[in-house]
Design goal:
With 244 residues, this protein is of the alpha+beta class. It has helices at residues 7-13, 19-27, 88-92, 118-125, 145-153, 186-193, 223-233; strands at 5-6, 31-33, 36-37, 43-44, 50-52, 55-56, 66-71, 99-100, 109-115, 133-139, 156-157, 160-161, 166-169, 174-179, 198-206, 209-210, 218-220.
Length: 244
Amino acid sequence: MKKKSRINKYLSEVGFCSRREADKLILSGKVYLNGKQAILGDKVSMYDEVLVDNKKITPLIKHKIYIAFNKPLGIVCTTDKKREKNNIIDYINFPHRIFPVGRLDKNSEGLIFLTNDGDIVNKILRSKNNHQKEYNVTVDKPITKRFIQEMQNGVPILDTVTKKCLLKQTGKKTFNIVLTQGLNRQIRRMCEYFGYSVKHLKRVRIMNIKLDVSRGKYRYITKSELKEMKLMLSSSTKTHSEEK
């Protein structure tokens, strides 16, 4: 009996991309299954031929890879190497196919995960699972008590109000913030609401993983770290939509 998986799950499991990215590729007509254009819901076994952009997709490795990378400024968190020359994949130049978990703005730096495990991606990105992400931020003018209090209690941006967060002033123009959601350019938009401009933004922690490598370098997430992360994710729900 041939075991079959949905085609978006297959592309995730072989380390090509996340399920969300797979759905986009399928809808754009770039994925073919056994010579026919694939549609959402198609099922695939190891004996089927899958092409993306006319390139045959096959599992490169069976074991899962989990990397913690210190992204420099100017590098874009995309797997689209044709459209973006400063993409994260070319920069790392890893010998096996991996993809970033979520995004970090081009003008921001710091910790981002890369993996070939598509199943773990959705749980990490699901905002309602309340997984923490920590940032150090520098703004353009002195921080006030009102700024600290109101930032913590929720800010109206993007037709919603941000979740309450932890915020601590660390200097005249600097603060540390811990978020449990990931709206598009969230911290920058929150600051702009109060008339501040972000001059520097660095992510220093995701869940239980702290940034501890030099800029532009990466390390493998350890077995103990991964075990702890999976325990934190064990009650999480999966989603095919990524909020940033």
